[in-house]
Amino acid sequence: MAFLLCSIGLSSRGESKPYKGAEYRTIQSFHFGRFEVRWKSAPGSGLLSSFFTFHDSFNPIAEWNEIDFENLGRYSNQTQYNVITPGQVQHVRADTLPFNPHQAFHEYAIEWTPDYVAWFVDGYETHRQTGPHIQQLIHGQKNMMNIWISDNTSWVGPFNPAILPVYAYYDWVKYYSYTPETSSHFTLQWVDSLEAWDASRWQKASHTWNGNLVDFTPENVVFRDGYLILCLTLPGALGYNGGPVIDQDVDPPYMVWARSYPDKLFLFFSEPVDSVSAQNLNNYILPGFSVTGAKLLNDGRTVRLTVPGIDLNLTLNLLAKDIADLASPPNVMSLSSIKVIPPLPVP
After folding, report:
1. Catalytic amino acids?
2. ∠ CA 205-208-211, rounded to 5°
3. Which of 2, 60, 308, 331 would you label with 275, given CA atoms 20 to 30 Å apart?
4. Could you give all domains of the chain from N- to C-terminal order, each with its CATH number?
5. Above 50 in pLDDT, residue 13?
6. CA dist 247 → 42, 227, 257, 273, 302 (Å)
C-alpha cells in the first residue's frame, strides 16, 4: 500500500475521485508469518499494484506497521520492498528483476519474524532487513492486494488515462504461521486459489486516502477464469472488460546463484530447466578453468558442474547460454553471467 510520502486521511467512497481502483484484504490480522502470492502486476506510468501486509488502525501515523511488495507500472524490470514503521518511516529498497513482472506470473513471498523481514522472488530470497525498526512491527497486520494511482509523480511517473482499463492478476495466496520450534520455522495454514470470493476470509475495500487518485470500489474486484483480477478503470466502465486471462510462461530461465566447492560448482536456476540443454558442456564457460561435467539434480533447478582444480580464493564469473525451460515452446536463456560465491570459511 505504501502511501509513499503521502499525507493520510482515509475517507469513504463519497469523496469522488477521477478513477476507480480495487483492494482485496483479509478480515483477519496476522502477527508474523510467511505470505505468498502468484501475481502478474499491472503496466503503466503513474500506477502501481501490490502485495503487502498492513496494520489497519484508527491512528495510522503513530501505529504504522506495513510490509510491501510494490510493482510500479512505469518500470519493466523492477520491484520495490518496503517496511513502514510508526511515524510513517520508510525503509525502501528498489530491486532490478531479470524479467518483466507485467508480462507473466511470478511467485513472490514475504517472511516476517521477530528478527527480520525477508522478500522472495520465484522461491529465492532477494532482500532482507534486520535491525531496531523490525522490532517496531508490533501490531497484527492484514494481508492485502491493491491497484491505484498515486499523485506523487516523482515516484510513480505521470499518469495518462488513455491507457485505461488496466488490470493486475492474482492466481493464489498462501499463508504460513510463524512456528520457530519447527525445522522450517513456518507452517502452512491455508491456501486460497482465488477462484471465487471467500467472504469468510476476504473483504472488498471501498475507501481512499489523500494522495490516491482512485476510489476503491468492490465492483473492480473480479473473479474470472480462476483468477482474481483487480481493475483500474474510469468511473463509468467498472469491472473487467478484458479477454481470457493469459497465463503463459514467456520468460527464459535465469541464474539465481552459483557456489563453488572443491572441484565442483553448483548453479541454481529460477525455474526447472530442460535436462539436455542444462547438461550440455558447451553451454558453460568459466574463464581460466575447464568445465568437464554437468549434472542436473533431482530438483530440476540445480546443476552440478565439475570443475577440476577450481580456485576457491578467486573472484570468478560463470557464463551460461542456451539453457531452456520446460515451457512449450521453450524459452531459451541468452548469454548471461553470474558471480560465483565461494563456500563460507570453516570457523
Report:
1. 66, 70
2. 145
3. 308
4. 11-232 (2.60.120.200), 255-341 (2.60.40.1220)
5. no
6. 14, 10, 26, 19, 25
